[in-house]
Recover the amino acids of this structure.
C-alpha cells in the first residue's frame, strides 16, 4: 500500500488548510497581475481545471499576460469555441505570438468537449481556453468536467472554462472557480471555490487598454501603498 | 494571368545609396549631347537645390561636397537580376524590362491573402532590400509594364478595363519606333486609343506590321513570350559600399539588405539556409576577410539571421576598412512549408499527432491558426491559416493594436444613436479621443471610421466606431 505523508498532502495543496493555503510554486502559473496572484495564492492552478463565471464570457483580459508568456514556448495555446474572433493585431501588440494559437471553431457542443479533452491530454498545449455550449442548461456535466480535469493533469495543460454565472450552483470538480464582473477600474474577481483553501476574497484587477499587466499592477499597488501611508499620517 | 510590374524609377541612384544608412549629397550623372548632366539625385543633394537635368558644373557650385557617380547600366542590370532572386518568393515566373520587373502573380496571390496582402508585403520587403518601386497590375506583361511607367498604381484585371486604362496614354509611351513617331506627327494619332480605333489593315499599311503586333500583345490578343529568369544554383551577391566602413558593427545595415534578399530567394525555393559565407573586401587590395555564419537549424528568417550575424560580427576585428561585403550560400535544405513554420521551436512529435487527430475528426476548416496581416482595417488585419503558419508582423507593425480589444465581432453590429452617442443597454460613455482608421481606397474596400473605447452602463468596455461615410454607430469589439 502506498503511504502518503501529511507533508506531501500539504505541499501539493491537496489538503484543505483554511486561510493558510500554501499553493506550492510549480503548481501555479503567475497570472502577471500582482493583485490576482495574491488572491489566488500564486496564480492560476497549473495542469488543472479552472472556471470563470460571468454574465457574458468575461475574463479573457485577465489571461492575456499568461497567454503572452506561454506563447513564447513551443506548445499551443488552444481556444475551443471562442464566442468572437480573437483579434490578432491586438493580441500581438500585447506580446502574444499569434502563430502559437490554435483555434477550434464552429464546432458542436459535443465536438467542443471532445476536442478540449484531446488537446488537454495530448501534452502539446500549455493552455486551453474553452467556451463550452450551455444552450438549454446542457452545459458540461459533472462527469465531463471530471474527465477534463484528469486530462489536464495528464497533459500538463491548464484549462480555463468560461461559463455563465447561473452555473455557479452546479457542482464542479474544477480546482478554482471565479466569479468575474466588470468594475469601474477593471474586472472584479471573486473566489467561489479554491482547492485546498477557503472560498471568498475578491480583488479588482486593473485590466487596462495599453499598459502591460506588470506595470499596471505594480502601479495600482503603489497607489494603494501611498494611500495607506497617507492614512497613517 | 495577372502580371505585376514593378518599376524602379530611382534604380540608377539606389544601386549606390541602398547600402548606406546615411549618405551625403549624391548625384548620378550621364552624358547628354556631350555634357555631363544630373540624371538622379538623392534628397540630401536636393536640399542644396540640385535637380535632375542640371549640368554637373552647376550642381557642383551648389554643393561642393557633392559625391558624383557615373550612371552604371551594368550595375543596374545586375541589381534587377538580384531583385529577381528576391522576388522569387512571390512568383516563379519573372521577366525583365529596363528598370522594371514583371511577376506573374495570378497563381500566387492566394498565398498572400489576396492582392492587397501581396502588394503590401512586396512594398514592405522592397523597403528592406533598399529599393523603391511603382507598381501596376494587368493581364498582359506589356500592359503591366506600360502602366507601371505611365500610370503607377493602376490595377486592371480584365480586357475591357485594360482597354480603357491604356486608351488615354500617349502612343509614344508604348514604343519609340520611328514609324510610330511619324504617325503621331503627320496623322495626328496621339494616344493609344486613337490607333485602336483605326481599322487594322489601314494601321498596318501606315505603320508597318510591328505596331499592330505590339497592340495585340498589349491587349492580350497575341501571345507575349518573355525570356524568364531562372533561379541560379547558388545565391551569391556582393554590395559595394559607398566609401569605407571601419567599424564592424556598421556592417549590420548592408548585411541585412543581403539577408532579406537571400530569404526572399529561399522562400521561393521552399528551402532554408544553414551556412552563410561572408566575404569582406578591404581597400588597397588587402586579402579579404572571410567567415562563416552557421545556424543551428535551416532558416529563412532574416531577423534571426541578423541576430546571429550581430553576435558573430561583434567579435570580429577588422584588419582594414571594408569596401564591399558579399554573401554566398552554396546549399540549402529543402523542406515543406509546414515543417518550416514549426522549425524554430521544435514542438515535438505529439504536436503533429494532435493536429491530425483534430483535423481528421472535425475537418481542417475547424482547426485553424491565426495570423496578422499588414492592413489597418480591423476586418482585414487578421486571417485564419494553417495552425502554426501565422506569426506577428515584425517591426512593431501593430503598435496601434495596444488600444484595440482582444475580441473582435465577426461583423460590426449597428447601435442605436442616443442623442449623439451610441446606445448599448443605455447611453455609452466614450472614453478617449477617436482613433481614425481610413484605409482601403486602393482596393475598393475603403472605410473611414472613428473608433472609440466606450463604457456601457453595465460597466463593460466596448470598442465602437462611427462610420464617417455612411453615418451611424457600430459595436466592433469587446475588452472583457
Amino acid at each position: 500500500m502506498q503511504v502518503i505523508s501529511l507533508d506531501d498532502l500539504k505541499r501539493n495543496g491537496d489538503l484543505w488548510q483554511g486561510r493558510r493555503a500554501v499553493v506550492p510554486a510549480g503548481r501555479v502559473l503567475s497570472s502577471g497581475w500582482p493583485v490576482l496572484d495574491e488572491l489566488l495564492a500564486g496564480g492560476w492552478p497549473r495542469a488543472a481545471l479552472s472556471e470563470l463565471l460571468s454574465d457574458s464570457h468575461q475574463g479573457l483580459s485577465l489571461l492575456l499576460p499568461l497567454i503572452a508568456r506561454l506563447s513564447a514556448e513551443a506548445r499551443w495555446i488552444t481556444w475551443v469555441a471562442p464566442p468572437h474572433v480573437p483579434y490578432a493585431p491586438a493580441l500581438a501588440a500585447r506580446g502574444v505570438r499569434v502563430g502559437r494559437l490554435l483555434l477550434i471553431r464552429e464546432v458542436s457542443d459535443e465536438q467542443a468537449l471532445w476536442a478540449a479533452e484531446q488537446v488537454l491530454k495530448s501534452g502539446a498545449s500549455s493552455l486551453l481556453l474553452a467556451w463550452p455550449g450551455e444552450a438549454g442548461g446542457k452545459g458540461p456535466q459533472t462527469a465531463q468536467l471530471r474527465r477534463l480535469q484528469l486530462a489536464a493533469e495528464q497533459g500538463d495543460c491548464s484549462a480555463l472554462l468560461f461559463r455563465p454565472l447561473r452555473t455557479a450552483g452546479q457542482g464542479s470538480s474544477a480546482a478554482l472557480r471565479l466569479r468575474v464582473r466588470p468594475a469601474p477600474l477593471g474586472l472584479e474577481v471573486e473566489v467561489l471555490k479554491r482547492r485546498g483553501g477557503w472560498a471568498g476574497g475578491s480583488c479588482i484587477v486593473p485590466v487596462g487598454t495599453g499598459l502591460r499587466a506588470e506595470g499596471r499592477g505594480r502601479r495600482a499597488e503603489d497607489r494603494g501603498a501611498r494611500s495607506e501611508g497617507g492614512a497613517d499620517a | 494571368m495577372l502580371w505585376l510590374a514593378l518599376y524602379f524609377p530611382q534604380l540608377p541612384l539606389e544601386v549606390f545609396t541602398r547600402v548606406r544608412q546615411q549618405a551625403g549629397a549624391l548625384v548620378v550623372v550621364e552624358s547628354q549631347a556631350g555634357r555631363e548632366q544630373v540624371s538622379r539625385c538623392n534628397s540630401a543633394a536636393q536640399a542644396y537645390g540640385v535637380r535632375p537635368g542640371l549640368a554637373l558644373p552647376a550642381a557642383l557650385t551648389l554643393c561642393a561636397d557633392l559625391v558624383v557617380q557615373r550612371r552604371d547600366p551594368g550595375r543596374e542590370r545586375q541589381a534587377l537580376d538580384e531583385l529577381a532572386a528576391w522576388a522569387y518568393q512571390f512568383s516563379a515566373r519573372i521577366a525583365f524590362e529596363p528598370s522594371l520587373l514583371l511577376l506573374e502573380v495570378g497563381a500566387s496571390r492566394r498565398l498572400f491573402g489576396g492582392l492587397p496582402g501581396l502588394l503590401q508585403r512586396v512594398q514592405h520587403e522592397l523597403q528592406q532590400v533598399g529599393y523603391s518601386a511603382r507598381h501596376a497590375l494587368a493581364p498582359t506583361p506589356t500592359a503591366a509594364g506600360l502602366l507601371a511607367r505611365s500610370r503607377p498604381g493602376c490595377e486592371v484585371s480584365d480586357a475591357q478595363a485594360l482597354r480603357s486604362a491604356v486608351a488615354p496614354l500617349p502612343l509614344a509611351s508604348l514604343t519609340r519606333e520611328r514609324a510610330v513617331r511619324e504617325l503621331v506627327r503627320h496623322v495626328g494619332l496621339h494616344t493609344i486609343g486613337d490607333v485602336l480605333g483605326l481599322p487594322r489593315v489601314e494601321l498596318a499599311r501606315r505603320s508597318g506590321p510591328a505596331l499592330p503586333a505590339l497592340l495585340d500583345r498589349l491587349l492580350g490578343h497575341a501571345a507575349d513570350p518573355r525570356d524568364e529568369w531562372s533561379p541560379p544554383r547558388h545565391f551569391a551577391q556582393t554590395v559595394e559600399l559607398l566609401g569605407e566602413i571601419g567599424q564592424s558593427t556598421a556592417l549590420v545595415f548592408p548585411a541585412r539588405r543581403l539577408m532579406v534578399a537571400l530569404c526572399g530567394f529561399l522562400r521561393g525555393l521552399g528551402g532554408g539556409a544553414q551556412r552563410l559565407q561572408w566575404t569582406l573586401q578591404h581597400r588597397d587590395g588587402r586579402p579579404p576577410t572571410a567567415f562563416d555564419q552557421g545556424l543551428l537549424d535551416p532558416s529563412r528568417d532574416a531577423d534571426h539571421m541578423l541576430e546571429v550575424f550581430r553576435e558573430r560580427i561583434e567579435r570580429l576585428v577588422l584588419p582594414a576598412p571594408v569596401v564591399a561585403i558579399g554573401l554566398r550560400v552554396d546549399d540549402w535544405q529543402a523542406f515543406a512549408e509546414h515543417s518550416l513554420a514549426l522549425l524554430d521551436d521544435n514542438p515535438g512529435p505529439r504536436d503533429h499527432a494532435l493536429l491530425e487527430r483534430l483535423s481528421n475528426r472535425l475537418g481542417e476548416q475547424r482547426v485553424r491558426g491565426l495570423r496578422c496581416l499588414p492592413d489597418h482595417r480591423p476586418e482585414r488585419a487578421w486571417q485564419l491559416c494553417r495552425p502554426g503558419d501565422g506569426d506577428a508582423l515584425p517591426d512593431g507593425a501593430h503598435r496601434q493594436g495596444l488600444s484595440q480589444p482582444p475580441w473582435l465581432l465577426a461583423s460590426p453590429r449597428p447601435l442605436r444613436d442616443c442623442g449623439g452617442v451610441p446606445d448599448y443597454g443605455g447611453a455609452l460613455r466614450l472614453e478617449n479621443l477617436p482613433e481614425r482608421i481610413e484605409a482601403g481606397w486602393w482596393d475598393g474596400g475603403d472605410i473611414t471610421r472613428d473608433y472609440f473605447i466606450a463604457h456601457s452602463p453595465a460597466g463593460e468596455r466596448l470598442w465602437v466606431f462611427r462610420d464617417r461615410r455612411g453615418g451611424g454607430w457600430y459595436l466592433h469589439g469587446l475588452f472583457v
Q: What stands out?
A: The CA atoms of residues 38 and 203 of chain A lie 9 Å apart. Residues 24-232 of chain A form a domain with the Rossmann fold fold (CATH 3.40.50.300).
